[in-house]
Design brief:
Belongs to the binding-protein-dependent transport system permease family. FecCD subfamily. This is Iron complex transport system permease protein. It holds the Pfam family FecCD. By secondary structure, the protein is mainly α. It contains 13 helices and no strands. The chain has one domain: ABC transporter involved in vitamin B12 uptake, BtuC (Orthogonal Bundle). The protein starts with 6 loop residues before the first helix and ends with a helix.
């Protein structure tokens, strides 16, 4: 799936490291302003309550924004394709199927009263388990194994969507309304303990990526070149895929599915970063992803006073952007 349109195979970065550092510093400054406005704008209740409530919401935005951005960047690195996202492997369809089966079996009342810890653990375990099982069955160290895994993921995604539709047809109107509410990501009702666990897992994956970021740069050259330069391509591909699955499962179980957000942030990173080194791109994508969610939530909720969820707006913009990429790739 390596494409000749990839920036790291077709052209060289135009910007120097110092220029990239300046851009990253500017993004961090914008992020600091956005976080400050998000926490302090239009405070009507007590400061203690407001900061606690908005602080929990801010942490969920930070974890989800960083996780999805990094996961998409890593997935495109190991696939060698800038159009694919981890969502193509059926994570969103699997998440919706889990919600549908839980509502169908427990009812709307049982689903609403279900322990958030049990629900989070169940969703994360199922998503991780399915993908790792497929990887164990299909990944045999050849260059095509990952491609087979992606194709099987697409097929299972269609299967999960069909099963979700089948079960949803058997729900009563109240149960169906609960299911529809769970189909879109929500950043406002995340349990603090789950945020702590998610933050710990994210920190562990970030430390691992810091150790292997130089090898990820070499993997951009392709399998044979990476092997010639001493990188265990198959092992690193499987490890990177595992980190990607962990980050996506973590964010999806935490707030819900956000399909096209990572694609949008990844391409903004390619355009603005000016470097194809993962030691630079990963922090850049992290800050950009967090900035997008925090500033978007601030504008949507505090300036425009819209009651719709931010994820719906992101999905619409990301979907249009995805269609534009497909059309441009077809013309190329």
């Amino acid at each position: 799936m390596h494409s000749s349109a990839l920036p790291f195979t077709a052209t060289k970065p135009r910007l120097s490291f110092s220029s990239t550092g300046i851009r990253l510093a500017i993004l961090c400054a914008f992020l600091l302003v956005s976080v400050t406005l998000f926490l302090t704008w239009n405070v009507k209740a007590s400061w203690a309550f407001t900061l606690e409530y908005r602080g929990m919401k801010l942490l969920s935005l930070v974890i989800v924004g960083a996780s999805i951005s990094i996961a998409t960047l890593l997935f495109q690195t190991i696939c060698g394709n800038r159009i694919l996202t981890p969502g193509i492997m059926g994570f969103d369809s699997m998440y919706i199927l889990i919600q549908t089966i839980l509502i169908f079996s427990l009812g709307s009342v049982g689903f609403s009263s279900m322990s958030p810890y049990l629900k989070w653990a169940l969703e994360t375990a199922v998503m991780l388990g399915c993908v790792l099982l497929l990887a164990w069955m299909l990944f045999r160290g050849t260059s095509q194994s990952l491609h087979y895994l992606i194709l099987v993921g697409i097929i299972f995604g269609v299967l999960f969507t069909s099963l979700s539709y089948l079960f949803s047809r058997m729900l009563d109107p109240t149960q169906f309304s609960v299911l529809q509410d769970s189909m879109f990501a929500s950043f406002g009702s995340v349990d603090p303990a789950l945020l702590l666990i998610s933050g710990f897992v994210f920190t562990a994956t970030a430390l691992f990526l810091f150790r292997i970021h130089a090898e990820l740069d070499v993997m951009l050259l392709g399998r044979q070149s990476a092997l010639n330069l001493g990188v265990d391509f198959s092992r690193r591909t499987l490890q990177t895929l595992f980190v990607t699955v962990v980050l996506i499962a973590l964010s999806t179980a935490l707030v819900g599915p956000v399909s096209f957000f990572g694609l949008l942030v990844a391409h903004l990173t390619y355009r603005l970063c000016g470097s194809y080194k993962h030691g630079i791109m990963i922090p850049f994508a992290t800050v950009l992803g967090i900035l997008t969610l925090v500033s978007g939530e601030f504008v949507l909720q505090h300036l425009l006073s819209f009651q719709t969820r931010l994820s719906i707006i992101i999905e619409f913009i990301g979907g249009v952007f995805f269609l534009v990429l497909i059309i441009r790739q077809g013309k190329a």
